[in-house]
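During the reporting period, we have paired protein sequences with backbone structure tokens. One record among many follows, to show the layout:
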Amino acid sequence: MRHIIVIGAGQAGSSCVAKLRNSGCTDRITLVGAETVPPYQRPPLSKAYLMQEMTLERMFLRPETFYTDNDVTLRLGAAVSAIDADAQTVTVGDDVLRYDDLVLTTGSVPNRLPASIGGDLDGVFVVRDLLDVDTMAPRFTPGKRVLIVGGGYIGLEAASVAAKLGLEVTLVEMSDRILQRVAAPQTSDYFRALHSDKGVTILEGVGLQRLTGTGAVSGAVLSDGRELDVDFVIAGVGIAPATALAEAAGVALNNGIAVDAQGRTSDPHIWAAGDCTSFPYQGGRIRLESVPNAIDQAEVVAENIMGAGKDYIAKPWFWSDQYDVKLQIAGLNTGYTDVVSRIGAGQTASFWYYRDGALLAVDAMNDPRAYMIGKRLIEAGKTADPAMVADPETDLKPLLKA
């Protein structure tokens, strides 16, 4: 019997094995994960789970019984130490497993603060997995002082939870503005105002010089010279694709594990999907860090292992939850030249990105209708009349028929 091994028991890995079985695959399947719990949703970790609004079991992507019922061997708490691409084997603990097809769904790893500036002090955290959140959770008590380093979506989501739980929150962003790498100034302004209204202190154009403390963090010195007393620190300074295993196996890398349109790596027996991969997109190559991409790409890989010969066509979309605001993003704003604002009542707003008259992306805050219409327009290769978009009284639905 053929053996398919999937390394990485996250969203992509779980989606891949489920799609294999749902597509009629009768081969032996093994899913290997470093954590000790079954595959779970990561987005609620730092929000609903941290706030004790969701139990761990509710975060499981599939019931534990799914894997046994579908004859999927689940190897949890198992570290993969090596891949021998020539012998087509994987070393898991003391076991050497042979594969016919190997799927890498290793995800990403958080960037950490350097030890040279105090990043290894106790009380300095990242937000990536269950252990991270379980370890920091007891510190989320009212009145505690938390410093968040990084004004991207990870940092802002952490700030929103901390503020809601009554902590004293300071966020530093060394760029000129929060979200500078991923969003227009209009979106930055929206979220800066939102957080300021909730009592979060946001310092832009200010970096972290060093953390202080003996053994455990107790303070921070910023690049502008000011000093802060802190009880703990959360680093939200981005993630990197987890490529170490692939690199050691001789698989080609290019801003992640390089795959073709069908999810194959440079090795004919190794596939990859999710955050760890870069893939062809509109004449170039991109890497998408999102749940939808992890699911969709992993399912295409599963179909192609079954012989479908199907290209993965990415439809980028993302979301972020902060306080009572749901941000939904459709498309990619890379290379935008103009932004049109559509401001509704209360906290409702959307910002539409254009390049030379072509619609590229939409940031929609508490406006699911604008998001859905924008998403459908982008996927259909259509644009939207900026004058109609800018008028909040204008019904956007006719744009779909234009």
Remarks:
- The chain has three domains: 3-109+239-305, 112-235, 324-401.
- Residues 112-235 form a domain with the FAD/NAD(P)-binding domain fold (CATH 3.50.50.60).
- The mean pLDDT is 97.
- The first helix runs from residue 11 to 22.
